[in-house]
Amino acid sequence: MSSVRALALGALMIVGVAGVSAAQSAAPKADSSHRRGGQMRAGREGGREFGRDLNLTDAQKAQVKTIRAKYQPRNEALRNQAKPFMEAARAAHQKGDTVAARTNMEKARQVMQGGQSIRTQENAEIRAILTPDQQAKFDARQKKMAERGKGEHKGWGRKGKTAPAAKS
Question: N or C: more exposed end of the chain, with fewer CB within 10 A?
Fold first, then answer.
C-alpha cells in the first residue's frame, strides 16, 4: 500500500513540476523597445543603438551621444509638460469619454509640436557630423519617419482601420 502511495505521490510531483515548467516557458518576454500598446518609440530607434544602419565611427558615436545629451533636458521638459494631458486622455478613454480623451490628446500633441524646432536643431547638428553617404541614409530615415507620422490615427488601437459605419 505504501508503494502505491509513493508512486502516486511521485506522479503528482512530476505533473506539478511539468506544469510549472510549462507555465514559465510560456510567459511572454518583456521587450524594452515597445511601449504599452505595442507602439515603438518614435525618434529614438525603439531603444536600439542610434545609427546602426549608418555605420558610424566611434568618434561619430561619441559626437552623437554629446549632441543627444545636450538636447535631452529640453526634450524631457516637453514630455513632462505633455504628461498631464496624456494621463488625462488615458483616464478619459478608460471611462469611455472619447471627447475628453481626444481633447487632451490634442493638447499633448500641441505641446510636443512646440518642440519641433528643438528636434530640428538636434537633427541638423547630428547630420553635420555625417559623411555624404550617411547623410543620404539619415535623410531617407527622417523622411520615412515623417511620412509615418502624417498618417491619421483612426482611434485608440485601430491604426489604419476605418471606424465602423454608423447605423441609419
Answer: C
Full DSSP string of 91-159: HHHHHT-HHHHHHHHHHHHHHHHTTHHHHHHHHHHHHHTS-HHHHHHHHHHHHHHHHHHHSPP-STT-T
Count, residues in the chain? 168
33 near 40, Cβ under 8 Å? yes
Q: Which of 94, 72, 92 is nearest to 84 (CA)?
A: 92
